[in-house]
Amino acid sequence: MSHVEGSGTNSIAFPSRFMLLFASLVTALISVNVQAGSFEATTEQVKVQLIASADAVHPGDVILLGIHQRIIPHWHTYWKNPGDSGLATTIDYEVPDGATVGEIQWPTPSRISLGPVTNYGYENEVTLLTAIKVPKDTVIGGVFPVKAKVKWLVCEEICIPQQAELSLDLPVAMLEQNINTRHPLIEQALIRLPVPNPWPISVLPSDEHLILQINGSGLQPGAIKDIWFYPAEWGGVSHAAEQPFSFAGDAIELRLKPGDLKLGENDHLKGVLTITEENSEGLVTRGYTIDVTLLPGALKAKLPVAHTPDIVLSTALLLAFLGGVILNLMPCVFPVLSIKALSLIKQANEDPLTTRLHGLAYTLGILVSFALLGGVLIILKLSGSQIGWGFQFQSPLFVLAMAYLMFAVGLNLSGLFSIGGSVAGMGTSLAERPGYTGSFFTGVLATLVATPCTAPFMGAALGFAISQPPALLMFVLLSLGLGLALPYLLLCVWPSLQRVLPKPGAWMNRLKQGLAFPMYGAAVWLVWVLTQQVGPDAVIIGLGGMIALAIAAWAYESTKYGSKTTQFTGATIAIVFLLISVSGSYLGIENKPVPSPSSSLTDTNVRNWEPYSSDRLAQLLASEKPVFINFTAAWCISCLVNEKVALSQTSVLDTFKRVGITYLKGDWTNRDPGVTQMLSEFGRSGVPLYIFYPGGSSTKPVVLPQIFTPDIVIRAVSDFSSLTD
Fold it and tell me: Are 279 and 223 in contact (CB under 8 A)?
């Protein structure tokens, strides 16, 4: 007695397969067990037949037996890998002694989806073939008896396990005797079998997906309507995920999402690749068997990186200090510095010692803030997390909090409200008050608004710092903070420098009110950033919260000089609307799903770039094509300015097209481990980062400056591309 069964019988997906098995046990009471002494049997859902490729057999022959299932509409049985649920059909053959039974030959399956569950199986009809070797000593004139015990699961909305016992007696004929070998159902089944793959195929693994590369010479891209890969075993590839495909010359690239069981080094990816083409007969689907070994580390081997020149601690400290000084010119930081300059003008008649102490308090606020930021970075680094400059802006809640802070600062500058001491330091009332606490918290504010920016010299310094022990990382960050504090500190410490400042007057109040508008603009920009992170609903959430903040500020300011009852009422209203703003925004943002990488920067109607992925970069470099990569984020002001003034200009895009450059954009607005890894390989801890691979015989990457013009980009890509021609 021989036994053959589907290879997927014991590979049960958990938990969906567990639920299906449980349902199968429940429905077992209505399952069908057909005891038949003939070649066919029938249930309410399936008619099953045992057929053979010949009317008789010869000694030593190999014949094909088939289990043919005719299934009623809307029901289905399963392939050897049933997918997310189900059970493969099994066949136990009983044949005479000496005969051998092969494996089931599975026809190309179809996808059967029910909600989030995707199964692989057959509808309408299917024939499962098995090769049988007849012993050479079989007696001529006798009978070659075959029995088959078939078990299957047939499903629609419910699943019913069924089985049947079938038998077939085939006469044993002499070799000279002519026999019929053209059973029509067998012939149909042979046509539906997948054929060996005729093309070179490779698969490249990554953390995000597997890329199945098919060098399909002879395939017509215009005729191909669909491509799908059916994995032979459960777990290696997600069954329900989309499988987008694209063409790169003669090659076809199919992206597969890894399943629950991660394929490891030198593992085999087996299955059936189906290609649907349109010809004169309509849509035709053909299946091809695939058995390919994963190429471990293939992507990394194809990604040459530019190693940042080694720098010592003293160089990193100097670069960080210079970067901090330049940060003062960034759009969000400059208004804060202007606020402190106004306060310095008003303090012109004060004791020089008092002015110096204000400068020291402002500097201390910045240094303490950078120390706290460094502490967070150190904790994350020690915990094994990927970190980078501006990482906190990858949190939608932090972005929303910063938008509210900018809006509140604007309201304060506009004169809608003013509050005392320490809290006022977070707005412009600090510039009007002599308290050192105000100067301290203005330094805190300057640090907060500086974090989405990356100035020249900062990239190399921060990249060095991230790779160093905690103490050195802290030293570099404090050097950066000292550079940020330097301009105001110098004005305070050296009174002679204050002579360049204008004299106090009414213009100061107008300027203060005018500085409110950059704050409002920053708040609007941050709400836009929020929409890139969590979708368009962020607009109503952010703006609604700002209205609540404005009402709270108005209620507080309009009642604070009234009676105690009036003050209490105003304070109560203010607290209620503050709670509405904070709690409503939190609930609205926290439950929003985070879009996939690159989705936040893909809303343009006509796009001249592709989303970055390490897989795509490896493919382009393998083809020796030039590549320009822009690592950016919606919350990075420097990135947005560079894109507007340079990378979106017609002259730059025309140069890319002329040179044949593929423009990739890596979006770091939300957390993306792939982008973070690439940044660290180039010694950077944040965006922007611009990399150009000249292609051709030279794949050594070129890193462009963090601030550039169209001419700088055009000259860089043109000069290096000419060297590879």
Answer: yes
